[in-house]
Specification:
The chain is mostly helical and 427 residues long. It is built from 16 helices and five strands. The longest helix is centred in the first third of the chain and has 27 residues, at 18-44.
Length: 427
C-alpha cells in the first residue's frame, strides 16, 4: 500500500505498509507463478518441447579473477536468481522476528508449533509410503508456498478473519526457516572447509561493515556475491547466502529516505501540518523494510515465475501417468502435502491451545483452521526446489514434481471450498 502526499516543502513522501504490501505482492505474484507453471507444462508437452529443454540446458560461463563458473541456465536460475528469492525470505524473517507477528513470544508460539507439526507429519507420511524407495525425498512435502497460500487467503478474504491470515503468514515464515535449515544441513554435500572458512570471513566482513553504519547497497552486493561463491565451492547450497545476508540486514532507519511506515506513524493522514508529519515519520522505515519494498516485487513478479517456468515443464504421457500412479514417491509427496500438512497443523494447534501454551487466532473457527491447514498444503516453489536437490533419479524427480503440481491444485480447490463456506468474517 503506497500513498504519495506532499509535505509543506513540496517534497514527495511515500507511505509504506510493510505487512499489507507483502500480502498484496504475494497475492499478485501467485497469479504469475501459476501462469508460468501452466505455460511450462504446455510448452514441455507441445510440438516445440525440444526447445524447452534446449533452452534450460544451454550453458553459460562466467570468469572473474581466474575463477570460472560454468552452469546451465536452469542452474543459473535455481542457484543464482533464487538466491535473491531467499534473500527476500531472510528479510521477511528478520522483520517478522523483530517487529512482526513473531516478535511477541506468545503470539509467535502458535504458528511456530503449527509449522513444526505441519513439517513433521508430512515427512513421516512420506517416509511411511516412500521411505524404502527414495528416502532422501522426505523433506519435499514439508514446504508451504507463501505466494499461493496467501493468494488463496486473499480470494477468501471476506470469509476469514485477519488473524487467520496473520497466522498462516507466520506459519509459512517458520516453514521457510525449517526448509532453509534442511537445505543447509541435509542437502549439502562434499563440504570443503577451506571455502567455508572463506564464507565465514565474508560474513564477518559484512557484520563489521554493518557495525560501521555503511548502507551502500553495492558494498553488501559485492560481499554477498563472494559469500555465495564460497558456499557454492564449499559444498553448501549457495542460496543460503541470500538468507544469511537477509537476516543480517539492519533494522536501523534507512538514511536519505523519503519513505514513511504508516504502521509506525498511523496518524499521518490526520495531521494538518505535512512537515510535522514528515519530521515525525523520519526513521520509521528500516533498511530491512526498504530492501523488502524494493526487491519483493522482483522476487514475486519475475524470479519465482521464471523458476516455475524452468522447473515445471514435466512431460506428461499416458505411460508416464501410469508409472506415476504406481510410484511410492508420487503418493508419498501427494499424501504428505494434501493430508499431512492439515493434519499436522491442526493436531499441533489443538495441543498448543488445550495445554494453554498459545491462543487460537481471534475469530477463527475449526473450519477456518482446517482451511488454513489445507492452504498450507500448497507446496509449490520450495517443494520443487527441494525436489531438485533431493532426488537424483530422473523418474523419481518427475513423479515428485507431478505429485507437487497435483497436490497443489487439489489443495487450492479444497482450501477455497472450505473457507468460502463460512459467512463473511471480520477482515
Amino acid at each position: 500500500m503506497k500513498h504519495e502526499p506532499d509535505d509543506a516543502r513540496g517534497t514527495t513522501v511515500r507511505l509504506l505498509s510493510p505487512f499489507l504490501d507483502f500480502l498484496k505482492t504475494e497475492a499478485l505474484g501467485a497469479i504469475l507463478l501459476a501462469s508460468s507453471a501452466i505455460l511450462a507444462l504446455i510448452w514441455a508437452n507441445s510440438p516445440w518441447s525440444g526447445s524447452y529443454e534446449n533452452l534450460w540446458s544451454a550453458r553459460f560461463a562466467i570468469t572473474v579473477a581466474g575463477q570460472s563458473l560454468d552452469l546451465d541456465l536452469r542452474h543459473w536460475v535455481n542457484d543464482g536468481l533464487m538466491t535473491i528469492f531467499f534473500f527476500v525470505v531472510g528479510l521477511e524473517i528478520k522483520r517478522e522476528i523483530t517487529s512482526g507477528h513473531l516478535a511477541n513470544r506468545r503470539a509467535a508460539l502458535l504458528p511456530v508449533v503449527a509449522a513444526i507439526g505441519g513439517m513433521a507429519v508430512p515427512a513421516l507420511i512420506y517416509l511411511l509410503v516412500a521411505g524404502q524407495t527414495a528416502p532422501r525425498g522426505w523433506a519435499i512435502p514439508m514446504a508451504t508456498d507463501i505466494a499461493l497460500a496467501i493468494g488463496v487467503m486473499s480470494v477468501a478474504k471476506g470469509r476469514t478473519p485477519a488473524s487467520l491470515r496473520a497466522f498462516l503468514l507466520g506459519l509459512a515464515i517458520v516453514d521457510d526457516i525449517g526448509a532453509i535449515v534442511i537445505i543447509a544441513v541435509v542437502y549439502s554435500s562434499g563440504v570443503a572447509f577451506g571455502w567455508l572458512t572463506a564464507a565465514g570471513v565474508g560474513i564477518g566482513m559484512a557484520l563489521l561493515i554493518r557495525r560501521t553504519g555503511v548502507q551502500s547497497v553495492l558494498v553488501y552486493v559485492v560481499v554477498g556475491i563472494a559469500v555465495w561463491y564460497a558456499l557454492f565451492e564449499g559444498g553448501i547450497h549457495p542460496t543460503i547466502a541470500g538468507v544469511i545476508m537477509g537476516v543480517m540486514a539492519p533494522t536501523t532507519a534507512r538514511s536519505e529516505s523519503n519513505f514513511i511506515d504508516i504502521e509506525e506513524v498511523d496518524d499521518f493522514s490526520r495531521s494538518d501540518d505535512g512537515s510535522t508529519d514528515d519530521a515525525k515519520g523520519k526513521g520509521s522505515v528500516s533498511v530491512v523494510e526498504w530492501l523488502e519494498h524494493v526487491l519483493h516485487p522482483w522476487s514475486s513478479y519475475f524470479i519465482v515465475p521464471v523458476f516455475a517456468l524452468a522447473n515445471s515443464g514435466i512431460h506428461v504421457s499416458i505411460d508416464g501417468l501410469r508409472d506415476a500412479a504406481g510410484s511410492a514417491v508420487t503418493w508419498g509427496v501427494f499424501l504428505g502435502l494434501l493430508m499431512g500438512k492439515p493434519l499436522g497443523i491442526i493436531l499441533a494447534t489443538k495441543i498448543a491451545v488445550r495445554t494453554g501454551v498459545a491462543d487460537s487466532p481471534v475469530g477463527a473457527t475449526g473450519t477456518h483452521m482446517l482451511g488454513a491447514g489445507t492452504a498450507a498444503g500448497i507446496g509449490f516453489t520450495v517443494a520443487l526446489f527441494i525436489t531438485e536437490l533431493a532426488l537424483d533419479n530422473p523418474v523419481d524427480r518427475t513423479n515428485a514434481k507431478l505429485a507437487i503440481l497435483l497436490a497443489s491444485v487439489v489443495a487450492v480447490i479444497a482450501a477455497l471450498a472450505i473457507l468460502l463456506t463460512r459467512k463473511t468474517a471480520d477482515a
